[in-house]
Design goal:
Shape of chain B: elongated
Oligomer: heterodimer
Structural class of chain A: mainly alpha
Order of helices and strands of chain B: HHHHHHHHHHHHHEEH
Helix content of chain A: over 70%
Low-confidence stretches of chain B: none
Structural class of chain B: mainly alpha
Radius of gyration of chain B: 28 Å
Largest sheet of chain B: 2 strands, antiparallel
Number of domains of chain A: 1
Strand content of chain A: under 5%
Shape of chain A: globular
Number of helices of chain B: 14
Mean pLDDT of chain B: 85
Mean pLDDT of chain A: 86
Largest interface: A-B, 64 and 53 residues
Number of strands of chain B: 2
Low-confidence stretches of chain A: none
Distance between the termini of chain A: 54 Å
Distance between the termini of chain B: 101 Å
Radius of gyration of chain A: 26 Å
Strand content of chain B: under 5%
């Protein structure tokens, strides 16, 4: 009897632990890596350009009332903030997957037990984190400028109105109230949120395009085109239908565009907030839900293309 | 299952998902758009005419979601036209600005002021033009200002600032007392309406031919509100109407009290805010030196 053959053979390798279907930890790791990658690309330098724009606008010497001047500073600052946010979301997202491919980081990541959905979600979260931080910094710069100008205008107005003793305290308060209405208000935070929501949808669309695009340049150009069409179709469709005498072909084309391309114009509700209108929280909440819908659908579409892509 | 999934052509499948999502979100977004417009958070699309007038860059900016930025840039451009007295270019710029931001009251007030007051004043003194042409353009600019005001009131019916500016055009430039009275009357009761519009409505109604009796009753009602309304101009206007309407002596109001303390003493014209004295006379110079 062969004793050796009857002895139990030790396993060559310990049994592999089952890989969980989805791990937030792995998503967080990829997101952190993406943030580091973007910071190393010196992306935050564009904040200097933003600061320059805000300082330049803040020092315009226009023959306008203080309230109008403040309104102008706010409009330009928030408009520039919005522009930088969506442009940054497009460029940063378009560069990430091709860069990972070039650096061969993508192969290392995907050879590990990392699911592709986790990779895509991690990338998106990383970009959104950087966009969010940039928006907060831009808001800080803008708030400092608006706050400084507001206090300057208020003290000058009070000094001018009290100098001659011609105005009652009530009249002075009314005038100061007019300036405050166009000054730094907590509601402006919702305008920043609107820009962030818009940038999120733009990033989700760009990540979908970059899953099948052949180059970053293609992704950037097509994403910008989609953004412009998504912003313009509500405005332009009426005009186009009118000039084509409501032709059936144009009607069909407008419908197809409306169905396929996100409506970015909805996110312009930040303009109303900047102009001093009251914020309707319920509407902001609904916009958040619509954004979540866009993110889920575009992430699913990206996954559909990316899931069995050969590299 | 996996094999079946692999056989599905990806791009058409993605388009189908995108289409279904588009169909589902369409009504939700349309409803949201309506609600955002009602809450004044979203501006309705610009009028068709505005697109035709825009330059290429302004059009691209507007379509690209930079509506506020384009409007601000055009406001600066309009100021440049004001500096060079290019009134037609200024009007053109404001046509676009007001189409882009129809809810911004300051744009409407500015364009009425520029065309109704500045452009008309320029036509009164511009010696380079023949008198007939100046008169024609004076009226043209004044009516353009009125047209802007009417559109502004349509967009912001609750605005008293737009109406006050319109009343100034009627009062100072067209000297139309009846229209001035009508506009001041429209302002009464609006939010942010200044207190003086009630009196001004009466003063200009008193000067409107055929409305003297109505004006007398209106101003008397104001006078009877109490001491606060016994202002010299109000008393003077009532006195004028008493003469015109031949009101019997016992029903007439007493003359204005010359010793009535004025709310604020008249400020010398050469005393700037901060009590800075600009010397007009030798006496002023002596005061500054001392």
């Amino acid at each position: 009897m062969n004793v050796e053959s009857s002895a139990p053979t030790p396993p060559l390798r310990a049994a592999a632990r089952p890989v969980p279907l989805f791990s937030p930890g792995r998503v967080a790791t990829i997101a952190t890596g993406t943030v580091t990658q973007l910071v190393r690309m010196k992306t935050f330098y564009f904040l200097l350009a933003f600061a320059l724009v805000v300082v330049a606008v803040g020092n315009f010497n226009l023959p306008a009332t203080p309230a109008k001047e403040l309104s102008m500073i706010k409009k330009v600052s928030f408009g520039t903030m919005d522009l930088f946010a969506w442009l940054f979301a497009i460029v940063a997202t378009a560069l990430l997957i091709p860069r990972d491919q070039e650096d061969r980081t993508l192969y290392t990541i995907l050879s590990k037990p990392v699911r592709r959905v986790e990779y895509l979600l991690g990338k998106l979260c990383g970009v959104l984190f950087v966009v969010g931080i940039s928006l907060v910094i831009m808001y800080g710069i803008c708030a400092t400028m608006i706050g400084a100008r507001e206090s300057l205008f208020i003290s000058a107005e009070i000094e001018a109105m009290t100098a001659g003793g011609r105005y009652s305290q009530e009249e002075i308060d009314e005038q100061v109230g007019l300036i405050r209405q166009q000054g730094l208000r907590p509601e402006l935070g919702f305008a920043v949120l609107a820009s962030f929501l818009k940038a999120s949808v733009v990033a989700a669309v760009t990540i979908f395009l970059s899953t099948f695009a052949s180059s970053s340049l293609f992704t950037i150009i097509v994403s910008i085109l989609i953004f412009l069409i998504g912003h313009a179709h509500t405005m332009a469709s009426g005009f186009w239908l009118h000039s084509s005498d409501n032709s059936l072909f144009v009607q069909m084309l407008v419908k197809v565009v409306k169905i396929l391309i996100p409506d970015f114009q909805l996110y312009s509700f930040s303009e109303g907030i900047v102009q001093g209108e009251a914020v309707a929280l319920a509407l902001v909440g609904q916009m958040g839900l619509v954004t979540a819908g866009y993110l889920v659908v575009f992430l699913l579409l990206s996954l559909l293309v990316f899931v069995d892509k050969e590299f | 299952m996996n094999r079946l999934f692999q056989k599905i052509p990806r791009i058409p499948f993605a388009l189908v998902i995108l289409g279904l999502f588009g169909l589902a979100r369409g009504p939700v977004e349309d409803r949201l758009r309506g609600e955002l417009i009602s809450a004044k958070l979203l501006t309705p699309p610009p009028a068709e005419g505005a697109f035709e007038q825009m330059g290429q860059s302004a059009l691209m900016g507007t379509l690209g979601g930079l509506r506020s930025l384009v409007a601000t840039f055009l406001t600066l451009e309009a100021f440049d036209h004001f500096s060079t007295k290019s009134w037609d270019d200024l009007r053109q710029s404001y046509q676009i600005i007001t189409a882009l931001e129809p809810r911004d009251e300051t744009h409407w007030v500015s364009v009425i002021w520029h065309l109704g007051i500045n452009a008309t004043a320029n036509m009164e003194i511009d010696e380079r033009l023949p008198a007939f042409e100046r008169e024609r353009r004076f009226k043209e600019y004044a009516f353009q200002a009125i047209e802007f005001a009417e559109r502004g009131i349509e967009q912001i019916p609750e605005s008293s600032a737009v109406r006050i500016q319109l009343a100034e055009v009627y009062r100072e430039k067209l000297k139309d007392d009846c229209a001035t009275a009508r506009v001041y009357g429209d302002i009464i009761g609006l939010p942010d309406a200044p207190g003086y519009v009630r009196r001004f409505h009466g003063y200009f109604m008193a000067r409107c031919p055929g409305r003297e009796r109505e004006a007398y009753a209106y101003l008397m009602a104001l006078y009877q509100e109490g001491e606060r309304q016994h202002l010299p101009t109000l008393i003077k206007e009532i006195k004028n109407l008493e003469e015109k309407l031949d009101v019997p002596g016992p029903r007439r109001i007493p003359d204005a009290d010359p010793d009535r303390p004025k709310k604020t003493p008249k400020r010398p014209a050469n005393l700037l805010p901060g009590d800075i004295l600009v010397p007009f006379t030798r006496e002023d110079l002596r005061r500054i030196r001392s």
